[in-house]
Each structure stands twice: as C-alpha cells, then as structure tokens.
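Feature request, filed as a ticket because there's no other form

It would be nice if the structure record came with a short human-readable summary line next to the tokens. Right now we just get the raw output. Example of a typical job, pasted below so the devs can see what we mean:
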Amino acid sequence: MAKPFTLVTSAQAKGTLARRFIPLADSLRDLLTKFGLRSYSVSICTIEWTGGSRGAGTPVTRSELEILPTPKIDTFDTLTEFAQPIGLLESGTIELSQVSGRFTEEQLRGFDPATGNDIPPNIEFFYEVIFFPTDGAPGVRRRFYPRSAPTYYPGKLQWKIRLEKSNADRARNGDPDG
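Raw output as currently delivered:
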C-alpha cells in the first residue's frame, strides 16, 4: 500500500525544513549590510490621523518596524525626477527582494497583527527607505506604497514586493507631516 501524500496545513508549513533555514539565510544577507553594500534602511510605518480618516486631523506616528536584515532594492533606475515649482518630485516604482521569510504577509501588507484585519480608515501604511550619506548626515526619507501584494518564494526563503513612490515624504527627523 502506497504512503499517503503530505497534506499542507498551517502547522505543517510553519515547521518545514526550509523554514528552519531562514535564520541562516538572514545571517548571510546581513553580511551585505556589514560590508557596506546596503547602506540604507527600509521600514514599515503607520501613521494615525486624529480626524478619523486618512488626511484628516493631525498625523501621529503609530509604529515603525525596520526590516532586518536589510532587504535588497533591485533598482532605483525606474524612479524619475520631475521639476516642479516647489522642487523635484520623484515618481516610479522599486522592488524589494530578499525580505526575510520570518515576516508575515499581514506585516508586509500593514494588517493588524492581532486580528489580521485590513488597514483602518484612519491609518496610513507605507514603506520608508532612508539612504545614509557618507558624510554622516541624516538621510532623506522616501515614502513608498505597496503596488502589489507581497509574494513569498519558499525556495529562496524570501518575500518580494513592488513599491510605488509617494509624492509626500516625512521630514528627516521623522515628523509625519514632513
């Protein structure tokens, strides 16, 4: 009699051999940051608006979760700068890859971690990339919104997500209304 096939369940997927290799993959990815090949940070941020809906009232930073080890930004070549009367405006998309498999889809989509519910109407969710200049000055904060759902690649122990540049960035000191 043939053995039955493996039925994938949430508990089974959590304990696979591949999932046990995530800490090793993360340690190897962190070497790229230690060597100075990823001299930027990427964070998942939420801002709460006191007026009950996005853009209404006063913005208050609710959370910032730095993605570690530092993920790979596949290219900035797709960002374009447009001259505006108030300065340069960036537009375009980037792709984050090598995002640790220890993150959950809910975290990467900005869902409530306790309930798994979607983003409330008074919460603004975005990714923030800070490039650190070599002179030690604080870096420019660039805000991005998810353009696609995150995709998990179990054979590479990583998530990928496409992000679109926002028109508004936070101030260098992190004030939400930059």
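Something like this underneath would help us a lot:
The two ends are 67 Å apart (CA to CA).
The chain is about 15% helix and 35% strand.
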